[in-house]
Amino acid sequence: MQEIRDAILADELSAVGGLDIPDHYRGMTVRADEVEMFAGLPTRDKDPRKSLHLDEVPTPELGPGEAIVAVMASAINYNTVWTAIFEPLPTFSFLKRYGRLSPLAKRHDLPYHVVGSDLAGVVLRTGPGVHSWKPGDEVVAHCLSVELESPDGHNDTMMDPEQRIWGFETNFGGLAELAMVKSNQLMPKPAHLTWEEAASPGLVNSTAYRQLVSRNGADMKQGDTVLVWGASGGLGSYATQFALNGGAIPVCVVSSPEKAEICRRMGAQLIIDRAAEGFQFWRDEHHQDPKEWKRFGARIRELTRGDDPDIVFEHPGRETFGASVYVARKGGTIVTCASTSGYEHVFDNRYLWMNLKRIIGSHFANYREAWEANRLVAKAKIHPTLSRVYPLAETGQAALDVHSNAHQGKVGVLCLAPTEGLGVRDLERRDQHLSEINRFRGV
Length: 443
Prior knowledge:
Elements (H helix, E strand, L loop, with lengths): L1 H8 L14 E8 L16 H4 L1 E6 L7 E10 L2 H8 L6 H8 L12 E3 L4 E8 L11 E4 L2 E2 L18 E2 L12 E5 L3 E3 L6 H5 L2 H12 L11 E4 L7 H10 L3 E6 L2 H10 L3 E4 L16 H15 L6 E4 L6 H7 L5 E4 L12 H5 L4 E4 L5 H12 L7 E6 L3 H9 L6 E5 L12 H6 L1 H4 L6
Parallel strand pairs: 11-12, 11-14, 12-13, 14-15, 15-16, 17-18
Antiparallel strand pairs: 1-2, 1-4, 3-5, 3-9, 3-18, 5-6, 6-10, 7-8
Helix pairs in contact: 3-13, 6-7, 6-12, 9-10
């Protein structure tokens, strides 16, 4: 690994294809024999630092259509938190089910799971049938893994019956020194970004693009009013940027003055600090408060001069979904993913059916959508929302930050990169957008 890292840091990328790939590498894992370690604990008390381990693991055998990537940096997503706390179920059931698919997929069914669904790095090897990528290419990876042997996925690869999220429902993820991906997960690394900056948009940027911009999601248009929950967070910060970049009007919901200020830095003007304004959508564990929905809707109309949201960008789930259905305009769209506050959504269906509203489920993105989302980052139209970076050995703490919502935007992880700030190719473009690139830093 040291030779590979030295070659990349010395900018000898043409040489990496001739270097031996080690038979072991370091990766962050959860272990099958520990899935009961948090049994009986409330979700909030489950500590990813206890379940995530930096282990030496065998390098998987490379198959057709695949690539081995030297991972310079990665990032934390909520699926890593779910994996680390074994909720809603241990990911080993995903790996076992995948392993039954084929002898090639069987490699993923192991008593450990190398996690992580983002990366920025350098291609080291490609398997048979890979022609678009070669050793030495600087890349980022999106997390869609598909087989495409069924006709269902050929209009939209997200509809493939064997669609999975790499590093969550498959093994050999990006929080490691090496990662194994399918070649159709690879995209060019944005040249003006560092390794850690380039690694951070992947999953959330692509997810927000499909959810908000794509025809497969809300199909946002110019002039739409878009309510964005958690507008300074991992998903919401990209939704806010897409809304502003696409001529829509975001109404940003946050929970502190600091988060409100981040939204203003992105260019948003309509902001609701739900904590400061005391919005409580649940009276108790079992009953919501429709009066609070109405008060929330009135506050939105006050900011928008009478407009209800055309689109509600919904990802908190249980805590906010009743309010989301209520406040969407007649004929409006609630587009939902993630459900980070709970999967069981309760809403008053009268406000949905009698007002002809639509609920759209949205999950990650297909390759085309991920490519377009990454292209906007490469063109500096959409910017990373990286706030803090940890070394690989402290991934557990990084995951705890996200689990406890003690973060803004995205939390990055250095893998083979020894320090932050490396990997920039296009200094001119970087200098033009440095303030936007850094606006989440240190918050």
